[in-house]
Amino acid sequence: MSSGPNSLYEIRLMDEPAAREIVNWKYEPPYDLYNMMYESDEIEDIAELMDGSYFSVRTADGGLIGFFCYGRNAQVGGGVEQGLYLNGTALDIGLGLRPDLTGRGKGLDFLQAGMKFAQQNYAAEELRLSVAAFNLRAAALYRKAGFQPVQSFINRYGDNETEFILMVKPGLS
pTM of the predicted model, to two decimals? Predict the structure, then answer.
């Protein structure tokens, strides 16, 4: 699976060099919630990134700029515990843009590439994602791309509690 030749980005199954780079990305607070190796170690994070549900995103010149994941790994534990992902017609999408590229107006093109990839490679009637409620920048981007908030939930991770918003983009078929 890969994006087409006319795409801004090449999306392909995650490989180990990309996974090793991604696990070392560091986001500044409050976005550090998205840092890998939060409670696990590098080997576990690389194994997850290599499980077949993650895809690296590169520019035409080969630079790694982000990743997408689809399915179970795009779901947040608190939402799973509350049964919020049981709708079988929705494909969950998760994404990460390289930290130095966030907040620079690149998100919409990036997200749309991942949405197009999902439409081409998965039989989903709608896309669903979960975003931390404090991440107003990302939530605004998702709304601009056609996602609508449908529910919020609390995710507990160790001693931390974070509110998440479940958003859906219907009508893919």
Answer: 0.89
